[in-house]
Amino acid sequence: MTGRPDAPQDRGCVVGTIFFILGLGTLLPWNFFMTASLYFQGRLNSTELSNGTAEQKEYYFNNWMTFLSQLPLLLFTFLNSFLYQRISETIRIAGSLVFILLLFILTAVLVKVDMDQDLFFSVTMATIWFINSFGAVLQGSLFGLVGLLPLKYSAVFMSGQGLAGTFAAIAMLLSLASDVDSESAALGYFITPCVGTLITLFSYLLLPRLEFAQYYLNRSGKYEEGTTDKLLNDGTPVETLKLNGHANGSLTDVKPGSEAEAEGEACPGGTRQGRDPAGKASVLEVFKKIWVMAFCVTFVFSVTLSVFPAITVDVQTSFPGKWERYFIAVCCFLVFNINDWLGRTVTTLIHWPGKDSRLFPLLVVSRVVFVPLLMLCNVQKRSYLPVWFSHDAAFTVIMALFSVSSGYFVCLSMSYAPQLVEPKDAETAGALMTFFLALGLSIGGALSFPLRRLV
């Protein structure tokens, strides 16, 4: 992987590998907590005695986990511009990784600590809040850093993000398949992201020592000083974009043939301090041009997060027995993450419907049908709705279509938006779309509460 002909070689693709690891590390926190919902539910839903009567308190863990994971993303997306200007890159990235590591260690330690359920719930929710706050800062900072290198490194970084969910699901499957007791299995599961975060931290610290990375970072000036500021005005704008997950994604907007691509200075998430803002449209003017795409990305994530994982994780298999142990890990998390990644990947080949097509927002809105479909699966416990799709195959097919459409429409929305404005306003469009992406995640988390009660 190289950029300019006169640039040093990335021998052995070491820098590419580092950015893949960094991408994987940014979304490990959210995915490991989400995939471990069965462990948390097991600790919180045990029966307690109250006045001599057995009672089971409902904590709605998955709903709170989803909401408190996405709200920090929304808040820190808004605060990112201030953080970029006032806190150095090294502190933002290395500091966030250190705090994420400490919080994962705390979570692993708590596996062996016998705690009151209310206290355990409160500590876990606080951990989720802070770990995702640091994760939001980490992700935004790394997108700015990788934007200083050639375009292909942004693709590698986002490929790592795209596989974070699958990595967590496979780790859960291995934990479940082990012959040890459930407590030891949970401990081993949470030690895995501790090791992963530590490797991510060491990878970041190694980066400045590599000649290839030094060439681009030094050549572009210091990252903190805001030199990732080139979105050029020549050529037909074609956006190359991939997203994480996450239900948690970010935008990379590049014009092929431009100086930004040649010099590795595409700016997916950085700021443009020092650039003369004259001639740039106002935020409101940009929003008027991209509001349809902003609505689409918000709607897609609102639908996705309203039922996944808060409702889908409570679906029970129609084949009780040994398979019951692996059902959610495979048919919920693994199916979702693989198909979500597939949906994003398809957008590199297919761009249908077009950005000006009225069919596009119509198809996005039609995804709302997945909400009742998943609620009518074998979700337990339930109070109001009947079960229409009790078979595992029906749930798996619905989940596959649900996730592949989520990844596909999110990618198209995020890539179409910068094409609807002048090149000089593409950065503003990207920032707006990132905000509405985070807004959709938060709305979806909030909607999961009434929808779960309705089941």
UniProtKB/TrEMBL annotation:
SUPFAM superfamilies: MFS general substrate transporter (SSF103473). Keywords: Membrane, Transmembrane, Transmembrane helix, Transport. It is found in: Basolateral cell membrane. The chain crosses the membrane at residues 12-40, 60-79, 91-113, 119-146, 153-174, 186-207, 290-311, 359-381, 393-417, 429-449. The keyword Acetylation does not apply. The keyword Ion transport does not apply. GO terms for molecular function: uridine transmembrane transporter activity. GO terms for cellular component: basolateral plasma membrane. It is a multi-pass membrane protein. GO terms for biological process: adenine transport; guanine transport; hypoxanthine transport; thymine transport. Belongs to the SLC29A/ENT transporter (TC 2.A.57) family. This is Solute carrier family 29 member 2. The lineage of its organism: Eukaryota, Metazoa, Chordata, Craniata, Vertebrata.
